[in-house]
Amino acid sequence: MSLDNFFVPAASSKKKKGGPKGGANASIPAASQNDQDDVAEDMEQGSIESDVEEANTLKEDIIVERVTKNIEEILDRKVAAILKPVSELAEKFDSMTRRMAAAEQRISDLEDVTTKSAPRMDGMEKTIERALERLDSLENQSRRQNIKIMGLKEGIEGREPAAFFEEWIPKVLGLQQTQIKIERAHRTGPQVGRSDRDHPRAVLVRLHNYIDKQKILNAARNKGIIQVEDRRVSFYQDFSAEIVRKRQESSGARRQLREAGVRYAFLFPAVIKIFNQNGTTTSLSDMKEINEFIKTLHK
Is 271 within the bounds of a domain? Predict the structure, then answer.
């Protein structure tokens, strides 16, 4: 309802009331008539003011209601815009929570399986270790009758290496035994080409008799430096790759022992036997013991 609807009836009502008063009460005294008119005017004025206040109040209520409604709509849109990503994040978080729970369960299951399998794995590792040791031992036993000749010129053995070394080894080492029996002999590794002249491949010789192998190694050790066509030739016992690795670990320590004048023997598989000055011996089987012994030499 507009303010005009409140004001128009009040004005028309005033005109209607004013007309009859003047004609009907002409006989009333002037003073009394004026008082009555003042009272009527005050009443009408109060009624108008009341209507205006009521209209203003109604207008304010409408404005407040519309403003409140607009604010609610704005807040609803803003909250909806905020709730949508929050809801999506909540769904993702729930999904991640489920996945984490599934992962934790799988990890727990794996831990249970690992715990149960650990003793078996330890047993299998020990079994494999023992099997490898036995295999290495068998390999070295199969090499007991082999010797390696290092530094010999490529091709010197010709097309029949076994026959060549049967005569060449006793001659070079000065053995009383003029001929030894060799089952086979060959170079090890692939040919490198021209570098073979400077770095000839090793010769692997398999003897028929183990005693002959021992005689050859002892003679080579007693002879010391062996020169063939201006090349230094060395004789070694043939070992497996694992034994060679172990023996190479102590090569530096053995050099220090020689420089210090310590008498020792290098035994199979990789044991250093020290000959002490008081007639006793000391066996060093691993690098820890060897290094500790060398430290005592520098004190």
Answer: yes
Question: How many other CB atoms sit within 10 Å of the CB of residue 163?
Answer: 13
Query: Which of these, 255, 198, 191, 278, lies nearest to 230 by C-alpha position?
Result: 198
pLDDT by 10-residue block (mean), the chain, 299 residues? 43 43 46 62 68 76 86 86 84 90 91 85 91 91 93 91 93 86 91 66 93 92 88 91 89 89 88 90 89 83
Cβ contacts of 30 within 8 Å, gap of 6 or more: none
Say if residue 229 is in the same domain as residue 263: no
Q: Is the peptide bond before 269 cis (omega within 30 degrees of 0)?
A: yes
**Tokens 């020689």 belong to which residue?**
258
Among candidate residues 242, 37, 3, 64, the one with its CA nearest the CA of residue 143: 242
Contact between 210 and 145 (Cβ < 8 Å): yes
> If we measure between CA atoms, which residue out of 241, 238, 243, 250 comes closest to residue 286?
250
Helix (H) or strand (E) segment spanning residue 90: helix 30-142
Number of domains in the chain: 3
Q: Does 171 share its domain with 232?
A: yes
Phi, psi of 58 (to 5 degrees): -65, -40
For residues 253 and 278, membership in a common domain is answered with yes
Instruction: Give pTM, 2 decimals.
Output: 0.55
- What is the Cα–Cα distance from 193 to 67, expressed in whole angstroms? 99
Q: What pLDDT score was predicted for residue 19? A: 45
Q: Which residues sit opposite 266 in a β-bridge?
A: 272
Cα(203)–Cα(234) distance, rounded to whole angstroms?
A: 10
- Check residue 20 and give its pLDDT: 44
Long-range contacts of 85-93 (CB under 8 A, 24+ apart): none
The distance of Cα 113 from the centroid of its chain, to the nearest Å, equals: 22
Lookup: tokens for 189 = 């590794």
